[in-house]
Amino acid sequence: MQVNEERLESVPLCDFCERSDFRLWFDAGHIKIVRCQHCGLMFLTPRLRKEALRDLYNRHEYYQDVSPASSKLIHVPFYVEMLNRIKTSAKASGSLRLLEVGAGGGLLSKCAALMGYDVTAQEISRPGIERLRAWGIKVIDGDFEELTDLGCGFDAVIALHLIEHMQSVRVFLDKVYRCLNSRGVLILQVPNFGSADFKFNSEIFSKMLSLPYHNFFFTPKTLGRYLKAVKFRITSVEYNLPFWIRGLSTLFREQGIGRDPGQDPAAFEDVICRTVAHQRPGSLGREARQFLRQGIARIVPGDCMTIYAQK
């Protein structure tokens, strides 16, 4: 993507350690990725100004091709599993309060609502907000880093492929920490720049960079430091399977499962209901599959990591 230099801003200090000692890691022309020599964090400088990024997020082509708003039904089993784990760890009766930050097209938020969660979704793009409201989800319209009245007492906050877009990860995590109740759960999902996929597959490398949308590029170590600095306790770090195993799995994928839920709402809700029924908390089959998947992924981590943390 061509970038107008007038829409760029330099980043003088590392967001984590506030040092200025960093070196070039990847040169993409007008914008560059640097690595902090003190803490190892990788970030973009110069980067697009916040208002320039907002313009990109409001374009329908971004919504359809890049953002989580293009999520397909194939993600539903993963979302249901994640939401079941929150219920298990919360050990609370009644409807759990969930905040999804950067909800995109609202697929996860809709899953949570159908599973009995009291859902609030934050989103900045107009196409995403329109779909969330059409699905009856409570929406916070605005930039999360600038919002001042988010409330508190949430049982869980979920941010999937979001924090790499932030202007400051530290500001984001501080705000999330204040939103959660005393036993609140935070779930983050980001590209894993410590993976073999990233090192050996050029197509995945380009997709993970996602320039100029991504401002930060994490390894498990650098993101873990952020969470510990804000006093989150990391309970689990999990990885997806490497690309060559995922490629094999597509041979067995159910025909039609990749449809956009917005095109067939009835089929979408039917898929969720069937998935919930087959993935009840404590299900022996579900736990066995998860154990096998994570066993492989720990040996050969894939290009995406999911971190579970608790206040």
How would you describe what is shown here?
A hairpin with a 5-residue loop joins strand 3 (31-36) and strand 4. Residues 250-257 have low confidence and may be disordered. By secondary structure, this protein is an alpha/beta fold. The strands form three sheets. A seven-stranded mixed sheet has the order 8-7-6-9-10-13-12, with helices on both faces. The protein has a four-stranded antiparallel sheet with strand order 2-3-4-11, with no helix packed on it. Strands 1-5 form a two-stranded antiparallel ribbon. It has a single domain (50-192, 217-310), classed as 3-Layer(aba) Sandwich (Rossmann fold). The chain is globular, with a radius of gyration of 19 Å. It contains twelve helices and 13 strands.
Key features of this structure:
311 residues; alpha/beta; Rossmann fold; seven-stranded mixed β-sheet; four-stranded antiparallel β-sheet; 12 helices; 13 strands; 38% helix; 23% strand; globular
